[in-house]
Amino acid sequence: MAQCPYPAGPQQTRNHRHRWNRRRFAGGRQAEGDRPRAGAHGGAIEVAGTGDVELAGSARINASGSAGGGVVALGTRLARATSRGADTPTLVARQVRIAKGARVAADPTVQGNGGQVAVLGADTATLAGRATARGGKQGGDGGWVELSGKNGVGLTGTVDVSAPRGKLGDILLDPATLNIDAGPLGCGTADYIILNPNNNGTLLGNQPDAISTVDVTNSAIQSLTGNIRLQATTAVNVNAPVTLTRAGQSLTIESGV
Fold first, then answer.
1. pLDDT tens, 117-147?
2. How far apart are CA 130 and CA 116, in angstroms?
3. Are residues 48 and 145 in the same domain?
4. Do 117 and 62 fall into the same domain?
5. Final residue of a domain: which of 156, 171, 186?
6. Residues 149-190 pLDDT 10s
7. Domain tally for the chain?
8. pTM score of the predicted model
């Protein structure tokens, strides 16, 4: 596999666009808006191509800014992220893999809304590292993170779109079919997503190009303290009872959206 031509340490600039057939990142890439001036939004980072895109465990992709998060597109064009999934890109990597330990950030460092992060593969997209689009510590709403692959998505890492002084952001997955099965915590392929308190139990799957299946256990749903929203493009199969015991808690299930 080709080695990253950039130094292992972070590189800082306003915007980055890279397109290739196959590329592995082991260092860092920054597009920070809070340097050299305060009050700026994060920049934009695009890594697109027709082959594979891989972020090694030491990789750091940073599009943060003091007044708001920026935009990161891995495996696709920036328009996919800025449109929050509405854009149908003409350039998509075959596979996108973000290894354990890798970090992707589009956060405000002071105050402002979280940015947008799109991870899109024509075949598969997997995230074992960490992706964040948080709201600012002094105010601002959470941002938007997408993990999408036509033939499958894998998320064993973490996604954080929390907002300590604002509204929670959105985490978008695109399974065609969502199964709710009986089982203990951690047995479903998406349990780690809805168990993350930062996303308030939201599992979205409303992209028309999705054909993968995601499984969630009823125990994972019942353990949540927030309102729960489950979406899939084709079908939601409820194969086990779900009982909510907390006052004011709601469960919304949608299919064909």
1. 999 988 888 888 899 999 999 999 988 888 8
2. 14
3. yes
4. yes
5. 171
6. 777 677 777 788 888 888 878 887 766 677 888 888 777 777
7. 2
8. 0.72
